[in-house]
Amino acid sequence: MSHREHHRTDRVGWLRAAVLGANDGIVSTASLIIGVAAAKAEHSEILVAGVAGLVAGAMSMAAGEYVSVHSQADTEKADLERERKELALSPEHELEELRGIYVDRGLDEDLASEVAKQLTAHDALGSHARDELGISSVMSARPVQAAVFSAVSFAVGASLPLLVTALLAGSMMIPVVAISSLIFLALLGGVAARAGGASILTGSLRVLFWGAMAMGATALVGKLFGTVV
Ligand SMILES: [Zn+2]
Predict the structure, then answer these.
(1) Mean local confidence (pLDDT), 89-96
(2) Are residues 113 and 167 in the same domain?
(3) What is the pTM assigned to this prediction?
């Protein structure tokens, strides 16, 4: 009877990216809203600034993620191309290399030779990609998915303080946006920590600290700016 193991790595990767994107969305949009509000802007102006912040942030996250993951994809492609050439030029040397990798992983010489021979016969490039370069189909870079994913998670995060702002005007808006955003951050930090098997309290406090710092700084700048202009 086969037993199914659930490893955290399967889900941590995308969950961590989602939480980081949402965190960014909450912190940067809440800070923007609080900064503009502290400068005594009209409610409609604050909302416009918040929506512009959401769109700008989501687009820059998508662009940044696309470029960085794409360059990773380019590197992987170049490595695979070089490996393909080496396999064609010196198959004995490549076989020896693969055997060495398996010996280093603990197989005895004879078994390592046999495994290297059979895997090479089955899929030489795939074996070298996986065992020598560490490129597997699971981990291979997908720039478009990564870009869309981080833009959506940023937008979802940013929409939380924006929603609070849309529902609330007047003197209570800044404290309510700040407190509700800190609660969202603490929840997200706790979820990410829990999913990664780390302490929920530490995870929450960490994002709370930086979120509060960012909102405090923009409130200060907004207040100074509001008095000067
Ligand atoms: Zn190789």
Answers:
(1) 95
(2) no
(3) 0.76
